[in-house]
Amino acid sequence: MLPYGRQSIDDDDVRAVAEALRGDWLTTGPAVPAFEEELARWTGGVPCVSVSSGTAALHVAYAAARVGPGDDVVTTPMTFVATAATAALLGARVVFADVEPDTANLDAGAARAAVTPRTRVITAVDYAGHPADYDGLRTVAGDAGALLLGDAAHSIGSLHRGRPVGSLADLTTFSFFPTKTVTTAEGGAVAAADPALLTRAARFRNHGLVRDPAEQRHPDEGGWHQEVHAFGLNYRLPDVLCALGRSQLRRLGGFRARRAALVARYTTMLSEVPGLALPPCRPYADPSWHLYPVRVLDGRRREVYDRMRQAGIGVQVNYIPAYWHPVFADLGYRRGMCPEAEAYYAGQLSLPLYPGLSDADQDRVVETLAKILR
């Protein structure tokens, strides 16, 4: 089965992991800040805190924003459920706003209509790697007195009007799952320019521990002393995985270029195939494409999905609208809330896309898809 996405591991990655395994530190060692510093090169210098997954990154970011009971978080339903679930777990009410019909990114006008006096965070998702409308969303968040969070699980390395993802929102989260552009096997990160947000994020990912005597309430207890002022969790990313991530980041430019080339080939080859809508690219955007999401028209998505899979091509659907999950349905969310998102989902199909995808395999994907649709 040709997968829709997969990791790209080379000998340098293996050597980096082996070196970490042979070293003195498997976790909480020097590879962690080294990885975070390397990542900050891709966020325009905005400092980063590494964590154990993209989901952990969202949880940490919401905690750093002090999201809790009585707060609203406005976000898109066209995302993996974790974008909303982590806010709900902190006690917030999730308010879903509709998406742009072609990019599937959060629509700034819909976000504005969803804002309430309780809105603490507006969370955009860079769907498929295409940056959201950060200019419009920044205005909405500013008018609401809310923080802007960018879920950049798909978009590391992407640019918005020449500025890198990671520098566009108050908080930005990354995912390093194997299908993503850069992998640490499992892992994620939070970027924040505000020192207070960054400190709260760093503490939450490490049990809430305060080790600086200048900030402790009882600093004279002894050299071993550490305190917890606010609860946190163990979301640390170990040195072994940080070593892999640092090696991967050194190849991010190449990953971006290969993905862009594959996207351009798909767009050229599929432009005349009937029954498809192809992903757009806004003039302001330079995406790091994580997905190549086509939309199958005329209600044929299920048929095309099944026949592509039968042909050994692992297409995927990304994503079920978040509020369709029973956990949200049981909270009173109902289908029909975001019609543009539901219409997008009804036709969405992700074609294989990863740096190791050969031109020949891509040709096979296109030929099979075109044969089904013609």
Brief account:
Belongs to the DegT/DnrJ/EryC1 family. This protein is an alpha/beta fold and 374 residues long.
Question: What can you tell me about this protein's structure?
Answer:
The protein has 13 helices and 15 strands. It has two domains: 239 residues, Type I PLP-dependent aspartate aminotransferase-like (Major domain) (Aspartate Aminotransferase, domain 2), CATH 3.40.640.10; 122 residues, Aspartate Aminotransferase, domain 1, CATH 3.90.1150.10. It is an alpha/beta fold. β6 and β7 form a beta hairpin. The two termini are 23 Å apart. The longest helix is centred in the C-terminal third of the chain and has 19 residues. The mean pLDDT is 98. It is globular, with a radius of gyration of 21 Å.
Tags for this entry?
single chain, 374 residues, alpha/beta, Aspartate Aminotransferase, domain 2, Aspartate Aminotransferase, domain 1, seven-stranded mixed β-sheet, three-stranded antiparallel β-sheet, 13 helices, 15 strands, DegT/StrS_aminotransferase
Element-by-element helix/strand order: HHEHEHEHEHEEEEEHEEHHEEEHHHEH
What Rg is obtained from the alpha carbons, in whole angstroms? 21 Å
Number of domains: 2
Q: Largest sheet, if any? A: 7 strands, mixed
**Estimated helix fraction:** 25-40%
The CATH superfamily of the largest domain is known as Type I PLP-dependent aspartate aminotransferase-like (Major domain)
Per the CATH scheme, the topology name of the largest domain is Aspartate Aminotransferase, domain 2
Strand order of the largest sheet: 1-9-8-5-4-2-3
Top-tier CATH class of the largest domain: Alpha Beta
Low-confidence stretches: none
Mean pLDDT across all amino acids: 98
Number of discrete helical segments: 13
Beta-strand content bin: 5-15%
**Shape annotation:** globular
Number of DSSP-assigned strands: 15
- Find the structural class using helix and strand composition: alpha/beta
The rounded distance between the terminal residues' Cα atoms is: 23 Å
> If classified by CATH, what would the architecture of the largest domain be?
3-Layer(aba) Sandwich
Family: Belongs to the DegT/DnrJ/EryC1 family.
Keywords: Aminotransferase, Pyridoxal phosphate, Transferase
Cofactor: pyridoxal 5'-phosphate
InterPro entries: DegT/StrS_aminotransferase, PyrdxlP-dep_Trfase, PyrdxlP-dep_Trfase_major, PyrdxlP-dep_Trfase_small
